[in-house]
């Protein structure tokens, strides 16, 4: 299972989290995020990471040009679209960045939002389901209704996000069967400052899943 820790801002924390077992790290390229990092800050972390760790930039309603430039200048291997990007936009981004993983995040309020997923599955590499909040795009700490996702199987790889913590991760994975998980505020001391003890606890808990 892929394990993505999002909202990395500090090179040493990124390096440690990768060494603890994260398969992907996420970088907030959304200027309004309290976890925002610019190209130089992302590059400083990326340079410390092993090649086999995915480096995902998180964007929301950014232009094709901005995403392309940020990805190429920072050494990112993936772009996560966390705004209102359409399937057509995803297709255009694919032409701009053919070798980069494209993830589409969808914020889920109820079953009607799950129906939107199928319009993206032919265009993206991965879908990410996150919680809905009226004012915040992500990093909310709100959990999804896992019961609603028990049978969810979109036809492409998918990540579960939204309010996951070391304390609830096993309950979530008992109910839901994603290809990956994504955590941010559940392993933080403050926005952008990861709590390495919580990250270590997460990987300790996950040992029972992978064994
Ligand atoms: O985390 C943010 O600050 C953020 C801001 C704007 C758009 C997306 C954002 N985060 C996206 C993520 O992938 C988070 O990891 C995801 O929302 C889960 O967050 P959390 O509920 O805190 O685990």
From TrEMBL:
What are the protein's UniProt keywords? Amino-acid biosynthesis, Aromatic amino acid biosynthesis, Isomerase, Tryptophan biosynthesis
EC main group: isomerase
Q: Please give the catalytic activity noted in the UniProt record.
A: N-(5-phospho-beta-D-ribosyl)anthranilate = 1-(2-carboxyphenylamino)-1-deoxy-D-ribulose 5-phosphate
Q: Might you give the EC number(s) for this enzyme?
A: 5.3.1.24
Q: Which family does it belong to?
A: Belongs to the TrpF family.
HAMAP family in the cross-refs: PRAI
Record InterPro entries: Aldolase_TIM, PRAI_dom, RibuloseP-bd_barrel, TrpF_fam
Question: Highest lineage ranks of the organism?
Answer: Bacteria, Bacillati, Cyanobacteriota, Cyanophyceae, Nostocales
- The stretch of residues making up the signal peptide is none
Sample GO molecular function, one term: phosphoribosylanthranilate isomerase activity
Pathways per UniProt? Amino-acid biosynthesis; L-tryptophan biosynthesis; L-tryptophan from chorismate: step 3/5
Q: Which organism is it from?
A: Tolypothrix bouteillei VB521301
Q: Which Pfam families match?
A: PRAI
In Swiss-Prot or TrEMBL terms, this protein is called N-(5'-phosphoribosyl)anthranilate isomerase
Biological process GO terms, please?
Answer: L-tryptophan biosynthetic process
Recorded hits in PANTHER family, A to Z, give: N-(5'-PHOSPHORIBOSYL)ANTHRANILATE ISOMERASE
